[in-house]
Give the backbone structure.
Amino acid sequence: MFPHDPTQSPSPSPSPSPATPGRSVRAARRPNWLLICGLSALALLWPLAELTGMPAGAPRAATILGITAVCWIGVVGLGRFPRPVLTLALTGLGAGVLAHALGAVFGGGGTGPALWALPFSLALQAGWGAVAGLLAWAVQLGLGRQR
């Protein structure tokens, strides 16, 4: 058979693996920084709730944390993004950095005596992100996607 024989049907080209359609394995291992920054921006719900006059306390905290958790787990789990635990741990860290930066700029803390708590606060945020990542991973496994 000649390379350009019109009587022969072309052989199908090899399809990319289902784990990474159209992407190399190396690219799939890198964190998706745009996703991490976007999900970290949900930390802006805290000052937004304050600006809208939502009463402070446990109901506001539960509402904001619930919305954040559902968004993080839903987007990463249902979106089948690779490395969900790392992705959401970095997202939690980013949300913590953003929250502390906003607090420092607008007078909500971040300087003086509370500065010693910064590493613990960021570690807690990253930990909550990792827990959300485990739940997102469980969602992915439930959808039949094993990583």
Remarks:
- Helices lie at 25-29, 33-40, 45-51, 58-78, 84-106, 118-142.
- The CA atoms of residues 29 and 82 lie 7 Å apart.
